[in-house]
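User: Predict Calcineurin-like phosphoesterase domain-containing protein's structure from this.
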Amino acid sequence: MATYHDTESLEYSSDTSDDGRFSPHPSNRIKRYARPLIDYVRNDWQFSNKYTHAPTDEPSDPAKCLQLAMSIVTAPRFRRYVVVYLMLVMTCTVGWVYFLSPRLEEHAELLRALDPEVKEEVGGWFGTNALPSFDNIVQLGKLDEALIPTGEKRLIVVGDVQGCRTELDRLLEELTFNPTHDHLIFTGNMISRGPESTDVVDLARKYSASCVRGNDEDRVLVLRHGMVEAGTLIDTSTDEYLDGQSTEQAKRERDLARALTDEQAEWLDACPVILDLGQVPNLGRVAVVHGGLVPGVELEKQDPYGVMNMLSIDLDTHLPSSERDGIRWTKLFNKHQSTTYTTYSSLKNADIDEAKSRTTTVIYGHDSEKSLDITTYTKGIDTGCVRGGELTALVLSDNGEENLIQVRCNNYLG
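Assistant:
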C-alpha cells in the first residue's frame, strides 16, 4: 500500500526509465504527502466569527440587539406581515366608522323613538294629539274585499303617472291588463307635469280604478275650488295680476284646474288620502298612500297633509316633514312593524299568520329621488316617469305574490 509524504520530502519521480525504474530527474518529481489527506482538510466554518455566538452568561451588546432588530424589520416577510395587518386594521376602522357604528346608533335611535315612554314625554305622537281637518277631502277609503287577489285576480298598483298617458298605455300592454280580473290602483300624482293629465284621469275612470290623493292633485283641486268660488274658473282676465302665482308651476296648475271637467274633478275629489286594502295574504294589512304613514298612529288619525307630503320624520315626536331634515319615514315604519311582528310572534302558541296580520304594509309613491325602494313593510314605486325615468307597477297576485313591471318614459321636463 502506498504512503503519502509531506510536501517537503519528495522521494519519487513520476517518470520511469527504459528499464522500468524511477527517474531521479528533479523536473519529473511529484509531491507526496507523509500523512493521509483527511488530516489536511480544514473546517473553516468552525472557527469563523460569522458562526460563533457569545457565551450566554455575557451581557448582551446593544449594538448587536439593534442589528438583530434591524434585520427583522428589513426582512421581506416582516414587511409583508406589517402591510397585511395594517390593511386589516384600516378596513376594520373604516367599517366601524362608516358602516357598523352609524347603523348601531340608528338602530338605538329607532328603538328609543318607538318607546312608549317617549310618547308620553312629548305628549303623544303626531296624529294622536293633533289631527287637522280639511274640507273636500276623504281621509280613509276601503277597497272592496271582492277585489283581493285570488286565483286569476290581480291588484295592479301604479306609481306616479304625472300625466304620462302614452307610457301608461304601454305599461298596461306590458301587463296584459284585463279589466275582468285585474284592478288598477294609483298611488297619487296621476296628473300635473306631463302632457296628458286629463287623458290619464279618463283612463282611470274608464277602468273603474281606485286611487289616492297625491300632493299634486291636492294643489290643483284646492286651486280649482277657489277659482270656482271666486268666479275665475272661466274668466282669465285677472290671471296676470295674481300676486305670487306667476311661476311656471302656478300657471300650469291653473291651466290644468280649468282643463278638468266637473266629472273629472269630482272623481279626483273622491280619491281618499289613504286606501285600506284590508288583509292581503303574506302581506298583512295593506294600505296605499301617496307620501307615507306615521307608525303607531291609526289610519283614521293620520294627518292628511303629512300622508300626502312626508319624506322624513322626527324621531321624538313622529312629526312628518316634506323636507329631508329627519330620518326617512320608511326606516322608522319598518322598525315599528318588525317590532310589532316580533313581539306578537314571540308569545307562546302565537300563530304566525295571526302575527303577520297585525302588521301593516304601505305601498306609496311621491319619493322619485329615492326611486324604487322595496322593503318588507314599505314599497316605494315612484320611479320618476315624467323626468325620463320609468313607470312602475307593483302587481299583487294570489297568495300575496309580488311582481314589478316597468316601462321606460320620455323626459317631459327637458
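The CA atoms of residues 179 and 207 lie 7 Å apart.
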